[in-house]
Design a protein that fits this description.
- This protein is 48% helix and 12% strand.
- The chain is built from ten helices and five strands.
- The protein has two domains: 122 residues, Rossmann fold (3-Layer(aba) Sandwich); 92 residues, Arc Repressor Mutant, subunit A, CATH 1.10.10.
- Helix 7 crosses helix 10.
């Protein structure tokens, strides 16, 4: 039995951008574009009607911006949101992740990156590029600076209770997730099969009640398992 295609809703206030994304996605057998929207309000309406697996969401739009629309979509479980924008700005990145977005992509990304992001989000494996992961950690580190200018380090906090639920191997996997490694890269680092790594990742997310890899990055930092100086 063939798996059904991943369904995608395209949200952007420029019709040409939506058409460009549709052209890239529609030629793939495992992806189906099920709708388009020109602003956040319309995005919510179309998402309720089509129940997409993935929503490719612009940020700056009339009536309701992409960040606010993402909050509504995530709260109502109306699809995994990947923010797609021309603006490589930290405030968009962090606002999007805090709103519950599963990924962040620039509009100048190549077709393969777009396809990878859709497939990753659609399968629940939210993806952050390593450079984006470092920016997440760096921003969090800046936010945890103590009044005297020293790092109010996550490493100085007591370990969260949830870590005790992890096996030693799962803890290793969490650290590597926190550094932004893909399943394949984790498999190479730990000399494991990729299927085994997928099982460990699923166990980590389930035991720690984390929605996706984005939350795993934040958890690993807040638990003191990785430091902002690490590459």
């Amino acid at each position: 039995m063939t798996e059904r295609p991943l369904t995608v809703l395209l949200v952007d206030d420029h019709a040409m951008v939506r058409s460009g994304f549709a052209m890239v996605l529609s030629v793939e057998d495992d992806i189906e574009v099920v709708g388009e929207a020109a602003d956040g309000v319309e995005a919510i309406e179309r998402a309720r009607a089509t129940r997409p697996d993935v929503v490719l969401m612009d940020v700056q739009m009339p009536r309701m911006d992409g960040i606010e629309a993402t909050r509504h979509l995530v709260a109502d479980d109306l699809g995994h949101v990947v923010i797609v924008t021309t603006f490589d700005r930290d405030d968009y990145l962090f606002d999007a992740l805090q709103a519950g977005a599963s990924g962040f992509l620039l509009k100048n990304a190549g077709p393969e990156q777009l396809l990878d992001a859709v497939r990753a989000a659609g399968r629940g494996h939210a993806l952050l590029a390593p450079e984006v992961t470092r920016r997440v950690i760096g921003r969090m580190a800046a936010g945890s600076t103590a009044p005297d200018g020293t790092a109010g380090a996550a490493a100085d906090r007591p370990e969260p209770d949830g870590l005790a639920l992890l096996t030693a191997r799962e803890r290793e996997v969490l650290v590597l997730l926190g550094r932004g490694l893909s399943n394949g890269e984790i498999a190479g680092t730990l000399v494991l099969g990729e299927a085994t790594v997928k099982t460990h990742v699923s166990n980590v997310l389930a035991k720690l009640h984390l929605r996706d890899r984005v939350q795993a990055v934040i958890y690993a930092y807040e638990a003191g398992l990785i430091l902002p100086t690490e590459e």
